[in-house]
Amino acid sequence: MTRSFDSCNDPCVMQRAKQIATESEFRITPRDFTRRLSTDTGITPGQAKKVLKHLVSTNELTYSYNFGATHVEPSFAKPVKVTAHFVLSPWETENHSPPDQDTLVEIVIAPGISFGSGSHPTTRLCLEAIDHALLSSPNASPSGRAADVGTGSGVLALALVKAGCHSCLALDTDLNCVSEALNNVTLNHLDDKITVTPELLNGSHGNFSIIAANLRFPTLKDLAGLFLTITDPHALLILSGVRATELDDLIHHYGDQGFTATWTNSEKNWSAAVFKKTWKP
């Protein structure tokens, strides 16, 4: 039996609609979205289309275009709580305000072309991993010097410092990324704690207590030896950019290098892991 009321005013329907967009294992088309919403809540397909239109118009959801297909995704055109503690906020000079809850950590990101707006699952997974390692874990002890390899928008560097690291080196060879990361660092008032550079990470940069890298598996595999030599004892690695099918290989490879996986998670066929350095000379 279908329900014949204004579904846009039903909090249960609206909550389920947002869950479908955020929790779907793979990207979901508008047609599949409305079909699932209708099936899950008992509203008509027409009502489900109305709900989707309403959520897009209010910047709760958005359409993305990938390889000629249209998909429904969470929108980051307004502040979005992406983990237990982190909130991603777009920069709006006229009406920008921080989150109400004291426990939330806001990261302001200006619109740009660099990777790291929060729209991609690997960015959210990295933020979730940082949240777990530095804010939510009972043994969390954020401190020391961090590095963000392939910083993009700078979002992970910002998260690391806001979660407690005393400084961060953010590296990216793409000059557009460097420019946008520098802007985001300034917007978050962290110029004194985050250094953005177009260099490649190497041994001359010193040692780190935590390194974040959202890169594809072959690159992460190549970096394992360097990470071993430039990290402090008991250092943490936040790694993502790997497909779910590559996660076991990543864990095995880093295990051979002296790192033990302590946390993993996957979203939309992408995965992330937290590693702790257990290697002893």
TrEMBL record:
- The keyword Zinc-finger belongs to this UniProt entry's keyword annotation: no
Keyword Coiled coil belongs to the record:
no
Give one Pfam hit by family name: PrmA
Question: Could you tell me which InterPro entries the record lists for this protein?
Answer: Ribosomal_L11_MeTrfase_PrmA (IPR050078), SAM-dependent_MTases_sf (IPR029063)
Q: Which GO terms describe its biological process?
A: methylation
Stated EC number for the protein is 2.1.1.-
Keywords associated with the record = Methyltransferase, Transferase
Please tell me which top-level EC class this enzyme sits in. Answer: transferase
What one GO molecular function would you report for this record? protein methyltransferase activity
Q: Can you name this protein?
A: PrmA1
Organism this protein belongs to: Desulforapulum autotrophicum (strain ATCC 43914 / DSM 3382 / VKM B-1955 / HRM2) (Desulfobacterium autotrophicum)
